[in-house]
Q: What sequence folds into this?
């Protein structure tokens, strides 16, 4: 077990390292650098040179990468270009709870909706009910999350006035109060993903249903419902864990876009604004943060999977 | 078999109708998509303006038609870039194997484990906005998934007997790859191309919605929705129709891909 966790941690560090190199290098090849962004395009060459040496832009790319990475490990991503005098890490700190809350709510909603549907689809495999579920979930899959967000804003925000678009409470101020506002972005993120999760659950259950222990249970005179709830679901749940990593990555990506629709002041909106304003330290930092969240979730899922299912040989993974 | 045919048929019809509308928009649209018309500001859908008019009195149907053209063009180019480069990488790494294969695939795995939208945002923030830049950004993004799929298939096909006999006959590796391996993978590639189109349409409209895709005066369905968002109260149809067209388009491609994969 120890060896397995060590191995996974090493993989985690390597992935974050590679992503940090890609993001850093990508931003160092951009024509026009931070000095010009800060001073404006009609600054004198002397002033630019001065700022450049102050920011350490004169040095070799490798030297700059290790300096940046060294600071980043300590949580220091430098100063934002658009909010001068503000540390990027401070700016992110206030925004991260929103995104995490949307992510957590989305995963929850996704599982609450998909589980019953997936079970029903598996139970009535290859019948009309299964077909209807397939069609309906696929139609939902075709709705881009930002459009889903707009429809929700129109129905619940503009028409029914359940929430006021653009008004939010931070989860750090009022944990449960913030849910009332962030549930709508979460629905917009999770609904298009239902089809994907239902498909996985349906496959996991029907795969389990063909195993010998189910035949034995049937032979013993167990009812179909009892087999499903008492035996199959437990095992199918383990399979569901394997794709949770993928789902979490998709949900975070969805949150980046949907935050823009609802005007949620989270990481996604911050990132898009930073890109539009060419605020590179912020872009780099947000990408690294999201990478860490995704990779960490993946690692936790892998470890959980190994813990839950005793048949998995840890040495092989 | 029957199901497969209906899926492919329905998907093809939807895509052809939309493609026809977008090609038609190059030569003809009911009204000029950029011509403003004061009295028709926020006009509701009617017989003369099927989808209604926007906040400048521009005909939404004409704008959707020309937006469709851009969306198709971007989707086509990105899928071409992704599938051609991805297929080449997949074929060579799968066929030859070795250290090179190992390195590329590890790198591939890292990229694939990362949310693709985020990667697209990074590439766009490096390259800047605009139609050709979004094509490059999304094209690069599509390479890893094609490469992985083609590599897997190549490894499967490589083990088949007739490849061994082709080798025994002394055929060159490049000839084996081009004439014997690739045609076997082709059907699988086509399924993935349909899936690719599906993803490209979603990605393009999302990026344009965020204001990072095509630049005005060029139209895109995603951009229209983002412009329409401020007018949800006064004219909801402005956001509704471009959104519906995107959904229909994605359903078309997803029908096509599920039909091809059966």
A:
């Amino acid at each position: 077990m120890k060896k397995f966790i060590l191995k996974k941690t090493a993989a985690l560090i390597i992935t974050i390292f590679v992503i940090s190199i890609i993001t850093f290098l990508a931003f160092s090849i951009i024509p026009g650098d931070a000095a010009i962004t800060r001073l404006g395009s009609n600054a004198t060459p002397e002033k630019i040179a001065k700022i450049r040496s102050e920011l350490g832009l004169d040095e070799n790319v490798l030297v700059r990468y290790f300096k940046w990475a060294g600071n980043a490990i300590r949580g220091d991503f430098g100063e934002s270009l658009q909010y001068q005098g503000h540390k990027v890490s401070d700016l992110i700190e206030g925004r991260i709870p929103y995104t995490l809350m949307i992510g957590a709510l989305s995963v929850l909603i996704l599982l609450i909706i998909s589980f019953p549907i997936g079970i029903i689809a598996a139970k009535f495999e290859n019948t009309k009910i299964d077909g209807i579920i397939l069609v309906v979930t696929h139609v939902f899959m075709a709705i881009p999350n930002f459009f889903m967000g707009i429809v929700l804003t129109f129905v619940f925000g503009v028409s029914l006035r359940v929430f006021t678009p653009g008004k939010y409470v931070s989860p750090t101020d009022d944990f449960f109060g913030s849910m009332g506002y962030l549930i709508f972005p979460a629905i917009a993120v999770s609904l298009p993903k239902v089809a994907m999760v239902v498909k996985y659950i349906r496959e996991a259950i029907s795969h389990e249903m063909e195993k010998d222990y189910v035949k034995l249970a049937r032979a013993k005179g167990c009812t179909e419902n009892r087999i499903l709830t008492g035996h199959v679901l437990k095992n199918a749940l383990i399979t569901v864990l394997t794709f949770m990593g993928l789902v979490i990555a998709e949900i975070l990506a969805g949150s980046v876009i949907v935050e823009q629709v609802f005007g949620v002041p989270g990481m996604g909106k911050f990132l898009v604004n930073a890109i539009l304003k060419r605020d590179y330290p912020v872009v780099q930092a947000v990408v690294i943060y999201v990478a860490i969240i995704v990779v960490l979730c993946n690692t936790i899922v892998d470890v959980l999977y190994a813990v839950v299912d005793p048949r998995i040989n840890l040495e092989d993974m | 078999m029957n199901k497969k045919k209906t899926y492919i048929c329905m998907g093809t019809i939807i895509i052809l109708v939309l493609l026809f509308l977008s090609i038609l928009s190059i030569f003809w649209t009911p009204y000029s998509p950029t011509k403003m018309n004061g009295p028709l500001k926020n006009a509701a859908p009617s017989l003369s303006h099927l989808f209604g008019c926007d906040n400048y009195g521009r005909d939404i149907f004409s704008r959707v038609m020309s937006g469709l053209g851009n969306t198709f063009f971007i989707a086509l180019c990105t899928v071409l870039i992704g599938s051609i480069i991805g297929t080449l990488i997949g074929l060579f790494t799968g066929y030859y194997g070795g250290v090179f294969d190992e390195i590329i695939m590890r790198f591939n795995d890292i990229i694939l484990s990362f949310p693709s939208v985020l990667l697209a945002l990074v590439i766009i923030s490096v390259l800047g906005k605009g139609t050709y830049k979004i094509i490059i950004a999304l094209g690069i993004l599509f390479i890893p998934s094609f490469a992985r799929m083609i590599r897997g298939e190549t490894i499967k096909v490589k083990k088949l007997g007739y490849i061994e006999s082709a080798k025994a006959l002394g055929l060159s590796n490049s000839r084996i790859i081009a004439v014997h391996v690739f045609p076997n993978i082709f059907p699988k590639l086509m399924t993935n191309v349909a899936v690719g189109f599906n993803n490209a349409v979603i990605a393009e409209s999302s990026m344009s919605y965020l204001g990072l895709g095509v630049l005005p005066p060029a139209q895109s369905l995603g951009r229209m929705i983002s412009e329409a968002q401020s007018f949800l109260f006064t004219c909801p149809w402005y956001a509704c129709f471009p959104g519906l067209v995107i959904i229909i388009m994605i359903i078309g491609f997803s029908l096509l891909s599920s039909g091809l994969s059966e």
In short: Chain B is about 75% helix and 0% strand. The CA atoms of residues 150 and 189 of chain B lie 7 Å apart.
